[in-house]
Each structure stands twice: as structure tokens, then as C-alpha cells.
Amino acid sequence: MTALESFPWVSVLTGAILLTLFLGLWVWSEHRFDPRRGAMEKADGTACIRGTCGDAMEISLKFSQDRVVDAKYWTDGCRMSGLCGATAAKLALHKTPEEIGDIDHSAIEREVGGLPEEDIHCATLAAGVLQEALRNYLTQDNIRERVSKDPELRTVDRVAGALDKRKRSKES
To answer: Alpha carbon 8 to chain centroid distance?
Structure first.
């Protein structure tokens, strides 16, 4: 009897198939049942950006009484891109526009427990899409109209101005 004949091929093959099935089901369930993943009907602010790596990400925000009550993300990118998108959506929940203005790539990176150097661009993309969704919300006509009529809402105007300054400084 040779060494090949005595090796337990059936057991090894069965174990490999079971491991593959288990991992496949786990990845599928993570992707399928993430409550923050997907599109949002009638979002107050939404943005979709394609990053330099080729990944596209969309974040949608729903506001009530000047706080985020729902946040959704979508990405066609890698697992890290999905993780950063989910984290950005999670960080935005129950925040005011001013508080969302403070969420940057380092906040997302801290929340996920750190990222490898080659995946930091995923956090940067998620933060950029979140800020663009916020800008979209703040620059809608109904928000500008409310700000001009209500002096207590001047903070919304300040946040929109700060976001514009950040964008201009990054472009130059």
C-alpha cells in the first residue's frame, strides 16, 4: 500500500467542502442581512462617489428634527469598503448635521479598530461620501429657506460653509 492510498482523502475532502459551505453562508448572511446596506426611498441627502481604487459607494441620510434617523450605504467594492461604508452610516445615526461634519476618515478608522495601510482609502472614500450626502441635504432649497427664517438654525449654514471650505482646500 502506497502513501497516497493510505491518506484519508475522503475526510479531507469532506472537511474542505464543509468549511467552504460554512464560510460561504457566513459571507452571504453578512451581505444579505446588514440593516444599513441598500438603497433608501426618499432620502433627504444622498451621494454616490467612485473612489480612485474603482470602488463606488453611496450613502443616503434621512433626517427628522435635524437629526439622522436612518442611514443606508451601498458599495460595489471590497469587504473593507463595505465595512467602512457601514461604519460611516452607523456613525451618522442620531447625529446633527454639525456633528456629522466632524466625522472624517480617522473617526471611521478608529471605529473599525484600525485598517491596514493599503485599505485606508476605503475610510477616506466613506468619509467623503458621507460629507457629500450631508452637503446634499444642507443645500436643498427647503433647508436654505428654513435657515434664513429661523436664527436658531444658523448652525446649519455654518456647517455648509465649513464643508465648502474643506472641499475648496482639498481641491487646491
So the answer is: 46
